[in-house]
C-alpha cells in the first residue's frame, strides 16, 4: 500500500475518490499504529521488469522515501490527499474529516504551512457549506467553533500584527466575535499588538486547548526575549526565580540555561559588534547556583551573583 501511494506522490497525481478514501484510511492506520506499517525490501533487479529506466526510477523513489521520517511521509500523504480533494471541489463529511485530520496532525508536528492551508479551507468553505445543508447539527457547530478559534489564532500568530487578514475575515463574519474560542484569540491578538507580554503569558497559562497552546508556543520564544529586554531596561537587580516564573519557565535552572543559550547564540551572530539592545554577558559561564540577576549600567552588561 505504501509503495502505491509513494508512486502517486512522486507523480504528483490527482487521486480518484476511491483512492482518496483508501489513502485516508491508510493514514489513520499509520498514525494509530505509530507508523509501524510493513515496508517492503528494496527493489532488486528482476528479469521481467519492463525497462531499465523504469527500474531506475523505482529505485530512486525508494532512496528518496527511505530518508524520510514517518511523520514527514504522513504529511506528504496529507498534502496529496487534500490537494486531490480540492481539485474535485467536493464538500462532504469525508472532506471535513480529511482536512481536519491534516490540520491537526501537521500542527502537532510543526508543519504549520500545511496545517494553515487545511484550517483555511475548513473555516472559510467546508464548515459553512456543511452547516447550510445540515441545519441544527450541534456537533458540527461545536467543531466549527473550535476550528474558527484555532484558525483565528493561526492568522494572529503567523502574521504581523498589522496584517489585515484577521480584520477582513471578521468584517465578513461579524458574528464570529461572539464565539468563545474566537474571543480568546482576539485577546491574544491584543496582547501581541500592544506588546503586553505579561498579558500574553497569562493567556498562555489560561489556554486549555492543547492545539491552541501549541500554536502559541511559536510566539512564546519571541515574547520571552522581548520581555527580558524590557526587564533589563527597567531593573538594576531582580531575583532570577521571579523572572523564571514571569517568563513561564518550569524552574530557575531552566530559565538560566535558556538565558545562557540565548546569549551564546546572539553573540555568535554578532561576533564583530554586539548591538547595545541585545543581551551581553561577558562572565556568565557557571550560573546554576546563582539567585539574583544584576544589570550593570553602563556598559550594558548583565551578570549573575
TrEMBL record:
<dbReference type="InterPro" id="IPR005062">
    <property type="entry name" value="SAC3/GANP/THP3_conserved"/>
</dbReference>
<feature type="domain" description="SAC3/GANP/THP3 conserved">
    <location>
        <begin position="70"/>
        <end position="260"/>
    </location>
</feature>
<dbReference type="Pfam" id="PF03399">
    <property type="entry name" value="SAC3_GANP"/>
</dbReference>
<protein>
    <recommendedName>
        <fullName>SAC3/GANP/THP3 conserved domain-containing protein</fullName>
    </recommendedName>
</protein>
<dbReference type="GO" id="GO:0005634">
    <property type="term" value="C:nucleus"/>
</dbReference>
<dbReference type="InterPro" id="IPR045107">
    <property type="entry name" value="SAC3/GANP/THP3"/>
</dbReference>
Amino acid at each position: 500500500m505504501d509503495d502505491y501511494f509513494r508512486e502517486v506522490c512522486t507523480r504528483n497525481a490527482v487521486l480518484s475518490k476511491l483512492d482518496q478514501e483508501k489513502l485516508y484510511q491508510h493514514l489513520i492506520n499509520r498514525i494509530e499504529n505509530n507508523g509501524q506499517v510493513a515496508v517492503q525490501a528494496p527493489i532488486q533487479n528482476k528479469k521481467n521488469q519492463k525497462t531499465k529506466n523504469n527500474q531506475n526510477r523505482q529505485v530512486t523513489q525508494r532512496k528518496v522515501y527511505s530518508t524520510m521520517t514517518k511523520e514527514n511521509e504522513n504529511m506528504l500523504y496529507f498534502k496529496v490527499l487534500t490537494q486531490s480533494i480540492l481539485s474535485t471541489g467536493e464538500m462532504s463529511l469525508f472532506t471535513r474529516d480529511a482536512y481536519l485530520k491534516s490540520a491537526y496532525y501537521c500542527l502537532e508536528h510543526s508543519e504549520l504551512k500545511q496545517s494553515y492551508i487545511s484550517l483555511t479551507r475548513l473555516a472559510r468553505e467546508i464548515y459553512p457549506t456543511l452547516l447550510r445543508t445540515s441545519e441544527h447539527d450541534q456537533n458540527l457547530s461545536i467543531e466549527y467553533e473550535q476550528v474558527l478559534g484555532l484558525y483565528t489564532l493561526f492568522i494572529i500568530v503567523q502574521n504581523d500584527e498589522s496584517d489585515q487578514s484577521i480584520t477582513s475575515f471578521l468584517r465578513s463574519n461579524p458574528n464570529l466575535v461572539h464565539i468563545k474560542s474566537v474571543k480568546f484569540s482576539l485577546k491574544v491578538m491584543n496582547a501581541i499588538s500592544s506588546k503586553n507580554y505579561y498579558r500574553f503569558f497569562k493567556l498562555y497559562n489560561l489556554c486549555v486547548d492543547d492545539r491552541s497552546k501549541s500554536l502559541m508556543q511559536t510566539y512564546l520564544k519571541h515574547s520571552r526575549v522581548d520581555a527580558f529586554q524590557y526587564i533589563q531596561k527597567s531593573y538594576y537587580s531582580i531575583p532570577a526565580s521571579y523572572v523564571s516564573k514571569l517568563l513561564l519557565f518550569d524552574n530557575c535552572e531552566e530559565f538560566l540555561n535558556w538565558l545562557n543559550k540565548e546569549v551564546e547564540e546572539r553573540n555568535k551572530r554578532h561576533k564583530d559588534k554586539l548591538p547595545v539592545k541585545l543581551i551581553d554577558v561577558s562572565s556568565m559561564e557557571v550560573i546554576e547556583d546563582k539567585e539574583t540577576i544584576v544589570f550593570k549600567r553602563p556598559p550594558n552588561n548583565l551578570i549573575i551573583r
